[in-house]
From TrEMBL:
PROSITE patterns: OMPR_PHOB, RESPONSE_REGULATORY. The modification 4-aspartylphosphate is found at D51. This is DNA-binding response regulator. InterPro entries: CheY-like_superfamily (IPR011006), OmpR/PhoB-type_DNA-bd (IPR001867), Sig_transdc_resp-reg_receiver (IPR001789), WalR-like (IPR039420), WH-like_DNA-bd_sf (IPR036388). Residues 2-116 form the Response regulatory domain. Residues 124-224 form the OmpR/PhoB-type domain. Residues 124-224 bind DNA.
Length: 225
């Protein structure tokens, strides 16, 4: 597995590189945003580790530009700032996960493993449930040919539900497939995300049947009631 580390603090960059090489990852390092973006958009990486505050081009912009270019390499953001706002901004810009400095090397490794385990572009069949379509490769969701804008998490949740259409999925199943890090999952996280999905996938489309169903005491499913 080949990883690009974009980090301007040489001490941090070299300790990540050293540590990950011991875990048999192949590591490239870029020390500024411009070089990082160039490498990330021309070379094939399995994962990007991206600092937010960088000379040349900041981490958020790199994320956005890569996603615009349809490059969907998983991105783990490193940042010194741990505020909720940064987290939301990072994840909205197309990053997959987030780690606040200082972090333990064990935690970095755990996050990397979780991101690399996720199914990637290899699974690129367009999923269809009734009039709802999801393209995992292009990150597009449509209902009746109208595009639906989803956050990364809502997208993953929809994808997971659609891959298991008409099957009841428990909250625990959903959490373990959609959220890699249970520590960040609040008790009502699944409910909140399901509610948001209904608001985006079912409510605006009165002419179609509702697709997202709650099965009391068991969990959720997408498809036929
Ligand atoms: Ca920095």
């Amino acid at each position: 597995m080949r990883i690009l580390v974009v980090e301007d603090e040489h001490r941090i960059a070299s300790s990540i590189k050293k540590g990950l090489e011991q875990e048999r990852y192949a590591i490239d390092v870029a020390y500024n945003g411009t070089d990082g973006f160039d490498l990330a958009s021309t070379e094939e990486y399995d994962l990007l580790i991206l600092d937010l505050m960088l000379p040349g081009m900041d981490g958020i912009t790199i994320c956005q530009e890569l996603r615009k270019k349809q490059i969907h390499t998983p991105i783990l953001i490193l940042t010194a700032k741990g505020q909720i706002q940064d987290r939301v901004e990072g994840l909205d810009s197309g990053a997959d996960d987030y780690l606040t400095k200082p972090f333990s090397f064990e935690e970095l490794l755990a996050r990397i493993r979780a991101l690399l385990r996720r199914p990637k572009n290899s699974i690129n069949t367009i999923l269809t449930v009734a009039d709802l379509k999801l393209d995992p490769k292009q990150y597009v969701v449509e209902r009746g040919n109208l595009p639906i804008k989803l956050s990364n998490k809502e997208f993953s949740l929809t994808e997971y539900l659609m891959r298991n259409a008409n099957k009841i999925l428990t909250k625990e199943q959903i959490i373990s497939h959609v959220w890699d890090y249970e520590a960040n999952v609040l008790p009502n996280t699944v409910e909140v995300n399901i509610r948001n999905l209904r608001r985006k996938i079912d409510h605006p489309f009165k002419e179609f049947k509702s697709l997202i169903h709650t099965v009391r005491g068991f969990g959720y499913k997408i498809g036929k009631k």
